[in-house]
Known about the structure:
Blueprint: H1 6-9, H2 18-22, E1 25-30, E2 40-47, E3 57-58, E4 61-62, E5 68-72, E6 79-84, E7 88-89, E8 92-93, E9 96-97, E10 102-109, H3 125-135, H4 139-153, E11 159-165, E12 170-178, E13 181-191, E14 196-199, E15 216-218, H5 222-228, H6 241-245, H7 250-267, H8 275-278, E16 289-290, H9 298-304, E17 335-338, E18 341-344, E19 354-362, H10 368-371, E20 373-378, E21 387-390, H11 413-424, H12 428-448, H13 450-462, H14 466-498, H15 531-541
Antiparallel strand pairs: 1-2, 1-14, 2-19, 3-8, 4-7, 5-6, 8-9, 10-11, 11-12, 12-13, 13-15, 14-16, 17-18, 19-20, 20-21
Amino acid sequence: xxxxxxxxxxxxxxxxxxxxxxxxxxxxxxxxxxxxxxxxxxxxxxxxxxxxxxxxxxxxxxxxxxxxxxxxxxxxxxxxxxxxxxxxxxxxxxxxxxxxxxxxxxxxxxxxxxxxxxxxxxxxxxxxxxxxxxxxxxxxxxxxxxxxxxxxxxxxxxxxxxxxxxxxxxxxxxxxxxxxxxxxxxxxxxxxxxxxxxxxxxxxxxxxxxxxxxxxxxxxxxxxxxxxxxxxxxxxxxxxxxxxxxxxxxxxxxxxxxxxxxxxxxxxxxxxxxxxxxxxxxxxxxxxxxxxxxxxxxxxxxxxxxxxxxxxxxxxxxxxxxxxxxxxxxxxxxxxxxxxxxxxxxxxxxxxxxxxxxxxxxxxxxxxxxxxxxxxxxxxxxxxxxxxxxxxxxxxxxxxxxxxxxxxxxxxxxxxxxxxxxxxxxxxxxxxxxxxxxxxxxxxxxxxxxxxxxxxxxxxxxxxxxxxxxxxxxxxxxxxxxxxxxxxxxxxxxxxxxxxxxxxxxxxxxxxxxxxxxxxxxxxxxxxxxxxxxxxxxxxxxxxxxxx
Length: 548
């Protein structure tokens, strides 16, 4: 998600390892011919250490002439100004609207002097997304709405990448402000239908064919402005938006592009060669998109959001930082210094500070109220449950209503997921199998039930009974949110009981606690630590603890 304070934004180049943490979001993308069922997928993890996981909703509405819309900055809740409402706005659930348009983002900052210095700009990146969803029927229309807005009202954020999808296509748009000049410079590229893409706090659009009006859109001054500011002085055909408008070094590649690379290599093994780019050992950049060797499923997209660099040199469960319980998480800050040398912590897609995430699914073979599904989860992508909510939903379940990170609630999906995850962070390899059982059972149920549910909804749509369709969607959404939240409340309690005091209680194949023949709990086991932990004690202390 974004957003760091302006003072930190100005320090991005000098604080490369802090920056990916502070502005960390990840988007993964799959076009309709790159997926097993023709879905267009966009994933988004909204990562912030102060972000509460909730599902937002804006109802469709008609507006009278002269009616104004307030613009409130996403990250600070600060009022920025007002803009006129159009005659009609659309239903928006989270980051998807009733026409199956979905938008995600990741922040990269860029040249600090291009942040608005006048104080007159009123459209921040978050409002840009929300307003576009309220006003767009297609991805291309969303791009026009977004770029027209910043031209007219000014852009109040730093460098940003957007994923913009509808049921037929998906685009990546990158944008940055112009300092004291009003508006923004930007470029948008349509991802080929048979390709996968992604971005994670690094601009990724480099050389493009500006003559390809069907697949490349851009501000008229995207090159000339870079020339004027001294960011570029080559031939037009050599222009790279990413290199002109942002800084790149080994630390930002490893903290940012490496996340996209880990996604690519799952489905295109020959992209292993871009490990060198991510590790700062090569200047050959990773491409914006690749053609996968196999088509991706919904489950693949969900799994990819749980990535911890498994089976790569950045793998996080075996080095000393993982501890004796092989934890694939590292507490912040992400950089540290020893004997005058700088070191880093890895930054994976799945991270503890995620507030909420989604996998958006847009499908051309179904009516819009049925084809658009926001698979939504709160807290850490690795341990949360993705719940299906249709773009025609008009009522947010209680468990996903607004809240904040200072007020715990047993009825909150976010807090129950956080409770489960934070127990696992301390004894990961012990607890994650128990979490996977509950998580997998719920998600498996939700995925398996979609064909029958969508047949019901499509039948209602074809009959013209939109009220019944909407009521069915709202009812199921409430049931799913309650079920998932209740299940994780039970799971959190189970983990506490099973692993209390560093022990591990004995359970049967179904996870039930085993009792003795006299009705008492079986004596627990003492799992202890792994071999490396004991070896490190001896290396550190010598014979201090030796007893033979």
